[in-house]
Amino acid sequence: MIYVSTRDKSIKLSASEAILKGLSDDGGLFVPETMPHIERKLQELSGLSYNDLAYEIMKLFFDDFTEDELRNCINNAYGDNFDNPETAPMSYADGSYYLELYHGPTIAFKDMALQILPHLMTTSARKNGVTKDIVILTATSGDTGKAAMAGFADVPHTKIMVFFPHGGVSDVQRLQMVTQKGDNVSVISVDGNFDDCQTGVKQIFNDSSFKDEIAEKGYQFSSANSINIGRLVPQIVYYVYAYCNLLKNEKINDGDPINVCVPTGNFGNILAAYLAKKIGTPIDKLICASNMNNVLTDFFKTGTYDRNRDFHLTMSPSMDILISSNLERLIYFISGCDDKATAVFMSELVSKGKYTITDEMKLNLDDFIAGCATESETSSEIKRIYDDTGYVIDTHTAVASYVANKLNKTGRLSDAPLVIASTASPYKFARSIVDAIKDISSDKDKDGLHMIDELMALTDMPEPDAIKEIRHADIRHDGHISIGEMKDTVREFLN
Length: 495
Hints:
Elements: E1 3-5, E2 8-13, H1 15-21, E3 30-32, H2 42-45, H3 50-61, H4 67-77, E4 90-93, E5 96-100, H5 111-114, H6 117-127, E6 133-139, H7 144-152, E7 158-165, H8 171-178, E8 185-191, H9 194-205, H10 208-216, E9 219-223, H11 229-248, E10 258-263, H12 268-278, E11 283-290, H13 295-302, E12 304-306, H14 327-334, H15 339-352, E13 354-356, H16 359-363, E14 368-372, H17 375-389, H18 395-409, E15 418-422, H19 430-438, H20 448-458, H21 465-470, E16 479-482, H22 486-493
Parallel strand pairs: 5-15, 6-7, 6-9, 7-8, 8-16, 10-11, 10-15, 11-14
Antiparallel strand pairs: 1-2, 1-3, 4-5, 12-13
Helix pairs in contact: 1-6, 3-4, 3-11, 4-6, 11-12, 17-18, 17-19, 19-20
């Protein structure tokens, strides 16, 4: 398996090299030169555990890892650190299957990939004779940062620095990050939004003189964001697993299609579902659900990606994004793997803030349907699901649930079973959940932990260990900078 850059196919790396590098030197993202295909029948795979299925899928993409190396990475990532033996169980409510991706140590779907990425990365370093310490730089809209730090904390020969938008994450998300333990971690809040943080990180990655400077001190950069192929591939697994779960429980027959709805910000999670379809999972429609930052909804409807619009802070902050980095990979695929065209589109995004794909490329978007939800629609969906079924969903999952149900009512979806990616525990966004269920606006002076207590009183959901840990944890990180100070902050972190 060879990986090439979306902007220059002459750049070719092995899987382990691509994992280590994260972002191509030309600014492009790594993609498989040719797409593999699932080797065994899905009916046969349906009897496997999550870990064994993960091996069957990941070995297709990471074929320069030995079986022992890959299984070791998988088994270190998925085990007692997840609070459910299925790792990614499904719940049935209101006619849909909710794929619960939040049973890991930080109670968000990012754990599904970020618990394994450190193992993939350190194994890759050994395989390639890397002697420098790996420095992970990550921008987060709320969940990636904590999940990445939890994965990399005190991992030898690594350091990790996380930037998050000041005032742009939930109380619980902030507490999870600023209380993170580990001698090799740093968390900094930044004046700006997620796109500002992400752009700042990319600029550092693309600064060749700065990379040379830190190389002299024994460091090399890599990324834990979903631009890293080592994060994207593990996400493919749980969509195949969801299909196999339905097969095993005789909800579908082998070969029957399903629909998948994903709350979407940076486009990595739904891109993983797209790749699951490409390698042989019978998925009919991929539903891209956005909040008020609906740049993706407009893209799928018009073929124009235009980030020149108002930015909204919403109750689903992990989706408060106007530059969806992983969309570049989809652009590459629907252009017929045209690296030159992809490079032009990405250049236009930087220079003009927008680009328009060709009519032929629009035809290749037939796999997708897109929709968005307002804040009031998101709240109403949380309350509706809770009142009708007793099931509690978080704000991001509610966006997906609302969009999927609206599409169902308008007859735009087939009657195939619907799987909704449930991306976070309701406890991460307790204030919004309580306000929605009680149909009130809570006292803003009540902190996030108080709202968690209110949510516990309202429902019978057990309190996750991740919440118990932050109740009395010390604040360890209180840095706060401007966008222009990011590079100097990294330099200071690395001494």
